[in-house]
Amino acid sequence: MVHGDAARMISLEIDGTIARVTLSRAARRNAMATAHFLELARVVSTIPHDTAVVVLRSGVPGIFSAGADLGEAARLADEPALRAPLRLAIRAAVDSLLALPMPLVAAVEGGCHGAAVALILAADVRVAAPGASFAIPPAKLGIGYPAEDLARLSMMIGPGQAARLLFTASTIDAGEAQRIGLVDTVGDPAVVAATIAANDPAALTMLKAMLRDPGQPGHARAFEDSFASPRFRAAAQRYR
What we know:
This protein has helices at 2-9, 34-45, 70-73, 83-98, 115-121, 138-141, 147-157, 159-168, 174-180, 189-197, 201-212, 218-225, 230-236; strands at residues 10-15, 18-23, 53-58, 63-65, 104-108, 111-113, 125-128, 133-135, 172-173, 185-186. It has 13 helices and ten strands. It starts with a helix and ends with a helix. The strands form two sheets. A six-stranded mixed sheet has the order 1-2-3-5-7-10, with helices on both faces. A four-stranded mixed sheet has the order 4-6-8-9.
């Protein structure tokens, strides 16, 4: 039952060079149990490598995701054997997003809470619709948060802002999220994704690799070789 529900919640749609990964579990406000995180990792691994941009979004109006499913998490209090599988499933989901070679856009419309923030931290570009909100409330529940994701949060918004969000467990709106760097822009996520997809997929992959690890020795050759790309050859004709 859980596995079937996971398959229904996570879907992949390919539209030209845009891949859309959609979360749809309206009855639980897109909350994710262990099986859902694992299914997200599996679905992401099937995205074609010639995709220009991947969009992680919600198919449920008014909510991106409530984070980890507290209905399942409640069992962890008395069933220690379930704790590591949940932690590892979250890790698999986040790592699958981080491993994407093409740009990943997190399209946040509505609430983005708890473990869902870890998912959007894996994106290259985080776009919040005007009504989006964000909270990381584990302190309210008396639990922790994956250390890897806390490190990424601190790197992106600074240790002081990370501490404020974690220690107060307060909810912030889209404007505040942009001000502190939790999201990159407030606007229409679909427009951002379409603007990225209009560019050359190979160039996008190359640029992401350079941003991710600028010290790789192969980047210099990749830059030089890019002048032989079909897209550049076509563009160069206009200047001859």
